Input
Amino acid sequence: MKLDGTSNYREWAFSVKTILRGHSLASHLTDSLVDKSKDSLAVMARTNDDERVMSDTVTSMEHSLIMSLEHYESAKEMWDYLQGQYILIFIIVVLFCLH
Output
């Protein structure tokens, strides 16, 4: 499933979170990167995993949406942006439809 905008954001987000949970990577959507002053192997492992999550996120989106993420440097930043972008639009659409 590819994110194509507001029409499938909720289904896409659920799918992505479920897949990442299955690979023990879902924390990258909610946690900040590790403190770089800590063990360098742990930092490198976390960074590599975060880059994998970022890659998976981008490849699960329609091409027309990908460039909106070019300035983000972590999976959490990307996720927060997408969530803010599409949840807000979804709420506005629902409220409009109720009136």
